[in-house]
Amino acid sequence: MSLLEVREVTIRFRDATQGAGSALRTAVDRVSLTLDRGTSLGLVGESGSGKTTLGKALLRLLPIDGGEILFEGQSLAGLRGGDLKRFRRRAQMIFQDPMGALDPRQTVGSALDEVLAVHRLIPRERRPARIAELLGQVGLESRQATRYPHEFSGGQRQRVGIARALALEPELLIADEPVSALDVSVQAQILNLLADLQAQLGFACLFIAHDLAVVRYLCPRVAVMCRGQIVESGTTETVFSSPQHPYTAQLLAAVPDVQAALEEGRARRG
Amino acid sequence: MAESPVLAVNNLWVAFRTRAGLLPAVRGLDLEVGPGETVALVGESGCGKSVTALSIMRLLPPTAVITEGSIRVDGVEIRDLPPARLREWRGRKVAYVFQEPGSALNPVFRVGHQMAESVRQVNPGVDPRPVIRELLTLTGLSDPDRVAASYPHQLSGGMQQRVMLAMALAGRPDLLIADEPTTALDVSVQAQILRLLRDLQARFHLSILLITHNLGVVAQAADRMVVMYGGQMVERGPVSAVLARPGHPYTRALLAAVPTLRGQRTRLAAIEGQIPAADRMPVGCAFQPRCGQPMEICATTLPMPATFEEEWVVRCHCLKSAK
After folding, report:
1. Which chain A residues are Cβ-neighbours of B266 within 8 angstroms?
2. Element (H, E) at A71
3. Domain B33-58+82-93+173-322 is classified in which CATH homologous superfamily?
4. Which residues is B24 bridged to in the sheet?
5. What is the pLDDT of residue B293?
């Protein structure tokens, strides 16, 4: 059984600029995909293609209008009370903008402590040790637990975001553009960290990104989204080397790639 | 460069006034952009590239001061320009395109209204409407009247950036400074905007200073590149040469850190550590604490820019030891 199975999911929104009586817009259109334990799937597409909406729905942060989302064979729609809370522990998310996802008035240690406390995973006296361990896992020092988010650099804040998501030892991690706001050198640090942690902890990862090269680096499989639909999916190598859908081909051709430019002599006179 | 440069920055030092004293953000930068040429200014957050651009526009925040050096555009020293002349100089000589067109445009005025301001600034007394229509058409907007009648939020990011370019072209500037012009855009729109920049450049013989952190964009859009680190130039040369055989360890590290769509999927070579803070700048080479092959001299002595090959300059002690 797959960890996550998405069957024909549809999500519609009312266009807020057009008023309450306006027609519904389909943001996610009969999307199906599966994600096995411990694997990574890249979800790529341009702004407005529906990737983030789908990601939120997979964590039951948004209602769906059609289809079904199964987590270990169980429909998310039916989860209530304790079952829903257990699901929330097992599926976590990291966000594009770590500053926006952290409370500016809460120390990093306290943010991690809160997660552990809410889910009552470990007794209070053992939490400081666990917090230190988590910070260590993401390459921070345990003494940094007393610091506030603004005292960290962008890359360090994303490390905190990862620590918080992993605090509950989730089986599913949804990473929504986790490196697109970071500088190149820091981006590489975070991508390597995610790859290492996944190998070590074995969570499955849905990696939402618009950067195709980043997805190629991290995900053996990829699904391409366009206007709410998945237009192509498969192993990343196959999809990227011989795209079948014109949209995928167009996306790939548009990426300004250093290697491609050098090989094709597209780099300009110099 | 045979012709005299449109932009010539010499030994530019810019510092910020802080409680801890003056902290330098740009430290002795040399930069030239020739007629009709695109030069990419490359580096990560905090390397001083945007401060350099704002210095050229004389748009630095009040806390920043140019402490030394000269900035000449078409031979005119812009540090000496009186405020009265600055207004006419901006737009006609140099124009600026910002990273986020959505926040650079005023949300409460229609595009046409905002453009009319730029147009009147450079052509007083002329009916701005035909000029606006022409400018919007130039930037590839097929229905200029509809765009002019729209509010910014009614346009896509790509269309907004085209509007910004149209406004920048109103005064027929010689130099266009484009600060991360495609960073906020989707890849296919990014490709369109880069193509448009190239077309406009050919048509108007524009000189472009392209500020970006994206080496893919550099490879596609620029003739020469200047890599900055810690407020200094660390490497400068023709794009195709520098990207194929980077001379400075930082340029090499940047290239290795970028995932690519071609070739083997290997572990990314992350650059460990962080960029140095302005108040804790290393004594020697700014990159030395993060460098893969530091030598003893690197920690104590700042390397000077040295010619690597023709038109190709690298600031690294490794150059001397290799020779």
Report:
1. none
2. strand A66-71
3. P-loop containing nucleotide triphosphate hydrolases (3.40.50.300)
4. B15
5. 87
Q: Name the A residues in 129-188 with CB < 8 Å from any B CB.
A: 153-155, 183-188
3-state secondary structure of A4: strand
Tell me the pLDDT tens digit for each residue of A68-80.
Answer: 999 999 999 989 9
Q: Chain B: nearest CA to A84, how far in angstroms?
A: 36
* Cβ count within 10 A of residue A15: 10
Check: CB of residue B241 under 8 Å from CB of residue B312.
yes
pLDDT band for position B323 (cuts 50, 70, 90): very low
Mutate: best of B42, B274, B275, partner A, most A CBs <10 A: B274
Contact partners, residue A180, CB within 8 Å, separation at least 6:
A96, A209, A210, A211
Query: Which residue among B44, B220, B263 places its CB closest to the CB of A184?
Result: B44
Q: Which residues of A touch B268 (CB under 8 A)?
A: 188, 191-192, 217
- Rounded Cα gap, residues B151 and B24, in angstroms: 40
Q: Cβ(B193)–Cβ(B181) under 8 Å?
A: yes
Query: Could you state, in order of their start, the residue ranges of all structural domains in chain B?
Result: 33-58+82-93+173-322, 101-172
How many domains is chain A built from? Answer: 1
Query: Per-residue confidence at B45, pLDDT binned at 50, 70, 90?
Result: confident
Provide the domain limits for residue A75: 4-263
> ipTM score here?
0.81
Interchain CB contact of A23 with B (< 8 Å): no
Give the residue ranges of chain A where pLDDT is below 70. Answer: 16-21, 265-270
What pLDDT shows up at residue A265?
A: 63
**CATH for A64:** 3.40.50.300
A235 occurs within a structural domain: yes
Sign of the four-CA dihedral B98, A104, B18, B21: negative
Q: Are B242 and B255 in contact (CB under 8 A)?
A: no
Instruction: With CB atoms and an 8 Å threshold, state whether B216 touches A261.
Output: yes
Q: Does A99 touch chain B (CB under 8 A)?
A: no
